[in-house]
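ingest -> validate -> predict -> emit
validate: passed (alphabet ok, no gaps, 65 aa)
predict: started
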Amino acid sequence: MKVQHTVDAYWTLFIHILSAEFITKTGYGMYAYITPVDLDKAYQDYRHGNTPMQVFVREYVRLYT
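emit:
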């Protein structure tokens, strides 16, 4: 499976917030829990929804902790 998307400011911010949330909640970075493909899917889910980024990330991390 080839993952393609345009890197934009939201993508960078999403990675930063998601990583920080995983570290805060678990003490480990996001790649200890998810793969790059999972990360891309999470970002696509966020982009297609109406939930604010911080809320989406908080709920997403809660599924893994």
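Residues 9-62 form one domain.
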